[in-house]
User: Fold these one by one.
Assistant:
Number 1:
Amino acid sequence: MNEPKEGRSWNTVAKFEHFIHADARRQQLAASGDLQVKVHRCDVGGTRFAVKTRLTDEAYALSQNHKRKRSRR
């Protein structure tokens, strides 16, 4: 019944009552360019909207390389 997770996890930034507000926040975060952003319907009956983010693959790879270099020193 438990299936393995695929890919990196998403972080919830904020929750909104209306899609219009969630979409405005999504567009604001997407303008930075190094984030993947989505609006996810949540709560009982899908009455709220959550804005979720994660780093793009390129930005994630750079952050991992930076961490590896630091740990070796």
Number 2:
Amino acid sequence: MSSKERIILLLLAAINFTHIMDFMIMMPLGNYLMPHFNITAQQFSLLVAAYTFSAAIASLSAAPVVDRFDRKKMLMFAYIGFLLGTLCCAVAPSYELLLASRIVAGLFGGLIGAQVLSIVADIVPFERRGAAMGIIMAAFSVASVFGVPFGLYLSKYISWHAPFYFIAATGTLLIPLLLKYIPNMRDNINKEPINSAVIIRMVFPLILVWEIIKEKNERLGILLISTMMMGHFLIVPFLNPFLEFNMGFTNTQTPMVYLVGGTLTLFTSPFIGKLADKLG
């Protein structure tokens, strides 16, 4: 792997880190947000779900048109919008405004993951792509090992606003590096004339979804990811409140759960990526 590829992969992993930390940090913040805003567990779950629902809507809506733009420009547009949404979360004075800010962050954040993976697929040859994806996915581990525990400590010793300020500041520092090192990517641009069929797909993006899921392999891949995410979000948002309120863990001990789990995947993610390249 060339040094240029490594730099690009590390920058994309850094984007993934801020993006993943943003939606992960909301889950263990229930201990702080529920008493702060005097909200119920159901209202808190809406804060968690708002990001993912708006991200899903944005992804579906953008799917028919996203390949008509330079990948770098689309990534920068989405990332800057995501950082602005996260900054709004940091300054939100009420539950309603925090909920609205999570929706805004999700609308832009939903576009980031697909662009990151698309750029990796475009710049890394197929025979090294598993290792490259392992590096990108390791950002999930870093967000667990460092991001979530650090965010919880910020919440404990400063305020619940602090993790969102941290994410917004870190992302802002990344922007000049992204502009410098991420190449313009125009080879992917779909030059198909905009005819009635294209317009119909733009207006009704579910038609494009149907065209995708008709393919067996793509349908199985989407089903696998969907069930994994469903299991994740059914359990993880209430893991921290359960450990503290039901099991008696202190708010100093609970970050260790994320630390240990994330540390393990920090090693397994790149290893499995290399294994995929070797074994198929």
Number 3:
Amino acid sequence: MRILLAHNRYRSVAPSGENRVVDREGEALTARGHEVIRFERFSDDIEGWPKAKKATLPARAVWSREAHRGLAAVLAAQRPDVVHLHNTFPLLSPAVLYACRDAGVPVVATLHNYKLACANGEFFRDGAVCHDCAGHLPARGVEHGCYRGSRVATVPVALATTVHRRAWRSLVSAYIFISASQRDLLRPVGLPAERSFVRHNLIPPHDRPQQERTATVVYAGRMDKAKGVRLLMAGWDDYLTRTAESESGPGQTGEALRLVIAGAGPLQGEVAAWASTRPSVELVGQLASDQCAELIAEARAVVLPSEWEETFGLVAVEAMA
């Protein structure tokens, strides 16, 4: 088949496993003999926009005329059998659904988060799980400024969801959820059950030999509240306290563990300041996929302190693999 992958890639400073999943699926489809065409936009490009163009971003998130025209031209020239749609925010916008409809090309959409029911896509607010907007107009999300902590920034996100709700229900031939729990939590959105399927994220096989374990615990992921980075820091401090108490008492103690943190995100500065006073903690920054796999393979354990309802714990499955 000729398959067009449509995806708005996330910013480099806020890495997402979704980019990795899209790349892996594209490679796997190509390996199976399919022809893969990419239609992508890059959120990193926004940083280089002039101020006047940046001011149009909220409107573009609701309807991107540029993305609509661009995809329409590609569909006319390439004539794919199907469009596999991933992330549309903010540069593709739901306008791409209408371009596919007008071209008569069916759409399969993989839903990687909770964006259709939650402005921040996480069902997470003020340090706790929140389902206030599921199945309702996202007024509470605007009230609380759930996207980037800003009411102004949340308005276009909520508007895009509300205005195009019917399109998401009617212009998609099949919906792929990456876990059954995600499907169930998004049920209030009203997507047709007969066109909804669960297919877990792809984990490629590896042929590396079994690594010798080192006394390390690894956290690999985005550094933000929902991912539980502050819970991780508190837990590690508790471990250090208990280790110190054990060493001061009678008997032998086991080998002390080190914590290795890989990733980037909004809490990076806070994590760096905390780690600088703890010799047992090492920050290695954002790693390439193969480097991260190597780090995980050598670790005693991988820790996942997520406080939001993970749609699919990609790092957990990579660790088990």
Number 4:
Amino acid sequence: MVAPPNSDGLVSDAELAHFDEQGYVVVRGLLDPTDDLKPVVEEYETVLDRLVSDWIRDGHLAEPHDELPFDQRLLATVAESRQPYDLAMDISLPQANIASDTPMHHGPAVFHLLRTPQLLDAVERFIGPEIYSNPVQHTRIKLPESLLPREAWTGLTARIDWHQDQGVITDDADNCQILTVWFPITDADLENGCLAVVPGSHRRELVTHCKSQHPLTLGQVAIPESLVDPHQVPLPMSPGDVLFMHRRTQHAGLPNRSQRIRWSFDLRYQPIGEPTGREWFPGFVARSPSNPSAVLQDPLAWNQLWLDARERLAAGRDVSFNRWSDQGPHCA
């Protein structure tokens, strides 16, 4: 279901019913591209400034291309420098090889985006008013596959194979009410790699995921092709549209076959007090009518939570972020 443009920030009863039946719903125009998304774009322009400066300093890049807008500048500088950019722009940490200087981004504009009132109003319709921001969260800036250097090819920059979000967290959170919230910063269409879903797949149990052996998706865990339902629906979306998805809905990020970037955020929210499925990463209370003082208000405090987590993980042993052993019959 794709709803008409949203004027009151609420999710309708019909949309909730569609979510319950099909495992997803797209709400049009829930976020304001100018008020809600533009500050994030401007913040990422400063992130790219720092990357470009480093690439020039290290001899990977000859020109800063600072006359270009963000999307074109990112494409031009990454294509020329052949340097990875995903971790420096992500709002999480990787699942392995975390060092004390592993890049990440937790700026105030992103923090305010996670706490946007109309977004939380909508989330409340699905999970209730006591809302926790789950730390399984990413920004994905997919460059055209024909132009993306292999050195920069990761799950944050290219295609994402079929999976269920429950399949990429630990099993302590299997019965938790984790809601996926996905929205584009740029247009997301069939050409540049929008999301696709399998309607109704949330009614199935969690299916086997295997570690990908494909050189372009190496390290991802994904559902084997034989277990993916063939009834697949692409979801073209515009900036301001928001997709709400059940934790067991099968979905994939299609390949970017355009000459444009496709930039999106995928966030997760759940009722306060439940396991997050990624206990080593920090979440925070985003809304709590019963205990307003517990709500995190300070973006610097949010950033510090991630800095502290990075230090702990860098100092200790690697931890296991997924449940799959690749020993099942479907993983041959």
